[in-house]
Amino acid sequence: MATLTEVPVQTMPSLSNDEIARYSRHLILPEVGMEGQQKLKAAKVLCVGTGGLGSPLAFYLAAAGVGTLGLVDFDVVDSSNLQRQIIHSTKDVGRLKLDSAEEKLKALNPHMKIVKYNTMLLSNNAMEIFKDFDIVADGTDNFPTRYLVNDACVLSGKPNVYGSIFRFEGQASVFATEAGPCYRCLYPEPPPPGLVPSCAEGGVLGILPGLVGVIQATEVIKLILGQGDPLIGRLLLVDSLGMRFRELKLRKNPDCPVCGTHPTVTALIDYEQFCGIQPAPAPDAKLVNGIEQIDVTAFKQQRDAGKDYFLLDVREPHEFKIAEIGGYLIPLGDLQKRVAELDKNRDIVVQCKSGGRSQKAAEFLQQAGFKVKNLAGGILAWSDQIDPKVPKY
To answer: What pLDDT sits at residue 284?
Structure first.
């Protein structure tokens, strides 16, 4: 059994009769009891993100009686969130996720305190936000923020309850404890930009963040109670299609630049730069990495005027079935072996869902000698600005 000395417990708060009735199923567990429930009430947990993972995570921590929940998010609810972000509902579309989440959590448990941070987590604010919490639960979906959360947890001495999801698979662990490894021990370097698609590009099974988020909530509660065997030094792998759970043993890396014996990262860094992510181009940028950008309005005007553009769609076939604007389909992964299907004598405009994959395709085609432009904003911009009957997904 592991106990967590890293989580300080304040003077134990008392429980009202209403709280005793609410948590009665906890109180009759010897491993929780009155003292354990008081620990939960005294605990302060920070949830980074109120999306797919943050929704079940925050819901169950609130239901369990965690006294203070911090929520970090700056996004608004979109209809595409509702397939998995169960803390939000249809009427919340357009609202700040923080306000939507607070409303649901307070409705579930009015005995708790919620602290909202309507901001992007950054190197210049993470340490200040983390300092008032005992445990940080990472529900983010991008590599710069994962490394930022990890490093800030190591530097501030806070356990990092980690989860991640993609398509049908997930991961969970507990990082940054004194005895165990950190996220950098597992992944010393981020993957090259674009190698791992986001959930927006690759998709995610709606129930999967529920599975992984509940595992994260379980680990948080175990750490607070000092009960059970936390996922310290273990990476839990979730395969929802096969409904299999596997475990990898992890060891603390003595040469880790953050938690090793001779750390070289002693302050938070520029994590966008660390992950090799270039700043987003200005909306009116004409060139990105040498590729001319054409917006959807200009493209439609020129095509309507008789400009002989060849529109190349580099999305996947199942995306093409959802929505299309008349392009010739060659998925990005097939482009190199199918490049002979394209005519070097024609001007090519490349499009995808939002402009990222088409930019990569355009860079490849330009190097191969084609005259090419990237359709900025892709099919989403076309739906917004040209034809709202084209579905957005």
So the answer is: 60
Pick the last residue of a domain from 274, 300, 331: 274
Say if residues 42 and 66 touch (Cβ distance below 8 Å). no
Q: Strand 44-48's sheet: what is its strand order?
A: 113-117, 68-72, 44-48, 135-138, 160-166, 169-175, 234-239, 244-249
Question: What backbone phi and psi angles, to 5 degrees, belong to 369?
Answer: 100, 15
Q: What is the Cα–Cα distance from 187 to 140, expressed in whole angstroms?
A: 16
Q: Return d(Cα 58, Cα 213) in angstroms, integer.
A: 9
Q: What was the pLDDT predicted at 280?
A: 58
Query: Can you list the residues of the chain whose pLDDT is less than 70?
Result: 1-10, 194, 278-285
User: Residue 187 has what pLDDT?
Assistant: 94
Model pLDDT, residue 198: 74
Report DSSP state, residue 281. Answer: P
pLDDT of residue 9: 47
List of E strands, the chain: 44-48, 68-72, 113-117, 135-138, 160-166, 169-175, 234-239, 244-249, 287-288, 291-294, 309-313, 328-329, 347-351, 372-375
Number of structural domains (the chain) is: 2
Instruction: Give the count of beta carbons closer than 10 Å to the beta carbon of residue 33.
Output: 14
Tell me the C-alpha distance between 362 and 8, whole Å: 54
Alpha-carbon gap, residue 217 to 240, rounded angstroms: 18
In a domain, 305, yes or no: yes
The reported pLDDT for the residue numbered 77 is 97
Judgement on whether residues 346 and 265 belong to the same structural domain of the protein? no
200 and 61 assigned to the same domain: yes
Does residue 324 sit in the same domain as residue 375?
yes
Give the residue numbers marked as catalytic. 199, 352
CA pair distance 11, 231, nearest whole angstrom: 27
Do 302 and 344 sit in the same domain of this protein? yes
CB atoms within 10 A of CB 136: 27
Tokens of 163: 């989860």
CATH of the domain at 35: 3.40.50.720
Residues 6 or more apart whose Cβ sits within 8 Å of residue 243:
none
Residues 260 and 294 both lie in one domain? no
Distance between CA atoms of residues 208 and 210, nearest Å: 5
